[in-house]
Specification:
With 138 residues, the chain is mainly α. It has one domain. 50% of the residues lie in helices and 0% in strands. It has 6 helices and no strands. α2 crosses α5. It is elongated and about 65 Å long. The N terminus is likely disordered.
């Protein structure tokens, strides 16, 4: 699937560029569940303190995912300081660690991520019943 150049999306100049879509709600649930075990986590820092930086990292990724993070890093501190509210922003070394971890997650192979829509237990039982019936008919 590709994003075609349209007036509502002027940033797409390449007709073959992939669409970048992220379910931010699902991502925030992931981080809320795992932030305390992340290498960037500072003991005693609640999840809400990481949220603005996480959202900043996703915005940067969506706007610039065709570039490497290494290329973007020199410009990010200034963007981070102007794009986040002073009282809720993390110090830059910690923010950079959060941003790097978000990009790591987004660039991870799909098979490493949990399924977006795991089958319901009822569906699994139906599948098992179908397989059992097929085996009996055999």
């Amino acid at each position: 699937m590709s994003c075609l150049h349209q007036p509502i999306a002027p940033a797409w100049a390449d007709a073959h560029a992939p669409c970048a879509v992220i379910d931010i709600h699902a991502e925030m649930v992931f981080w809320a569940d795992t932030y305390a075990s992340q290498p960037f986590h500072r003991h005693g820092t609640p999840f809400r303190h990481y949220v603005p930086t996480l959202k900043f990292a996703y915005d940067v990724y969506l706007l610039s995912h065709r570039q490497s993070l290494h290329e973007l890093l020199p410009s990010l501190p200034a963007r981070y300081h102007t794009g986040t509210v002073r009282g809720v922003r993390l110090d830059w070394p910690l923010a950079q660690a959060v941003i790097e971890r978000v990009w790591e997650r987004l660039n991870a192979p799909l098979e490493d991520d949990p399924p977006l829509f795991p089958p319901s237990p009822a569906a699994l039982m139906d599948e098992r019943a179908i397989l059992a019936a097929a085996m009996r008919q055999r």
